[in-house]
Amino acid sequence: EDLGIVTVGFSGGQPKAGVDAGPTALIESGLLTQIREELGYKLHGDETVKFYNDLTPASDPDYRGMKNPRLVSAVNRKIASETYEHSSKGRLTLTLGGDHSIAIGTIAGTAKATRERLNREIAVIWVDAHADINTPETSDSGNIHGMPVAFLTGIAKEDKEECFGWIQDDMRLSVKKLVYIGLRDVDAGEKRILRENGIKAFSMFDIDRHGIGRVMEMALAHIGNDTPIHLSFDVDALDPMWAPSTGTPVRGGLTLREGDYICESVHATGNLIAIDLVEVNPSLAATEAGAQETVRAGCSLVRCALGETLL
Ligand code: DIR
Ligand code: MN
Ligand code: MN
């Protein structure tokens, strides 16, 4: 099978340096070799990491409270064209981040390509401790990695081309086709947005109550059979025990096996069209071992989504 690779060494959606080194760390630990040799994919695209330094604007003052709005917008516009290219050719697309703001681009590109190629709307499974659905106005931080879902669904809109005004309707995601898994740190404004829009969300409470097996059944039932799925996986969905090296760790998260199970179940649908793995920041763990654990966990999630089988 053909796999499009997009590597995004980018940290501009949040304030901590080092998340731009995530893709390099994942690749150096052998992820692409494993995908090629053990899982048998034919790889297309970036085998060396892209940093998009040429897109840095001359000046980038805050806008509607957003930090680095022109930079994050420009990088995402470029990413959208890259995932669009892969997805238009019918390739499963794997994006290695970078902070989670890059999902604006990855999802915009696959959504548009899937409308054109299959005349279908995509569904998104967003696995994260956070909902990332702040609008610029509800955000306390101004960090755009907390806003991608708002821009993708059109809950946040902007006309100014250089600040996400390039996002067209055919790049958007329906709130009905969005499912969250793993939530445990959601801002008050975000809770209101989730409620008012009737967005399906499985928090850690739901996972404790039903178990991950039943939660995945319910999540996939909500999306419906035969719907193309974009899986956007923030490594901070995992408990810091498994993924300590990330910008905003939150205790009480998924075990590595629960994370792998989510990826395996999505793979098993046969409907997976794209995967993002984001927020691996090798410089944030207290120990070198912690950074390695996080990278290993990230690799495991990706391999499971790509169909690594246990037996
Ligand atoms: C918070 C944190 N909700 C914000 N978001 C994070 O800044 O909007 N997302 N850490 O991953
Ligand atoms: Mn996130
Ligand atoms: Mn998160």
**Lateral strand order in the biggest sheet:** 2-1-3-8-7-4-5-6
Percentage of residues in helical conformation: 25-40%
Instruction: Indicate the mean pLDDT.
Output: 98
SSE series: EHHEHEHEHEHEHHEHEH
**Beta-strand percent range:** 5-15%
- What is the global morphology? globular
Major pleated sheet: 8 strands, parallel
Instruction: Name the ligand types.
Output: 3-{[(E)-amino(hydroxyimino)methyl]amino}alanine, manganese (II) ion
Given helix and strand content, the structural type is alpha/beta
Integer-rounded radius of gyration: 17 Å
Number of strands: 8
The DSSP helix count reads 10
End-to-end gap: 21 Å
Model regions low in confidence, pLDDT < 50 over at least 5 residues: none
Question: What are the salient characteristics of this protein?
Answer:
single chain, 311 residues, 8-stranded parallel beta sheet, 10 helices, 38% helix, globular, binds 3-{[(E)-amino(hydroxyimino)methyl]amino}alanine, binds manganese (II) ion
Structure, explained:
The structure is a single chain. This protein has 311 residues and is an alpha/beta fold. It contains 10 helices and 8 strands. Strand 7, helix 9 and strand 8 form a beta-alpha-beta unit. The longest helix has 20 residues. It is globular, with a radius of gyration of 17 Å. It binds 3-{[(E)-amino(hydroxyimino)methyl]amino}alanine (DIR) and manganese (II) ion (2 copies). One manganese (II) ion binds next to loops.
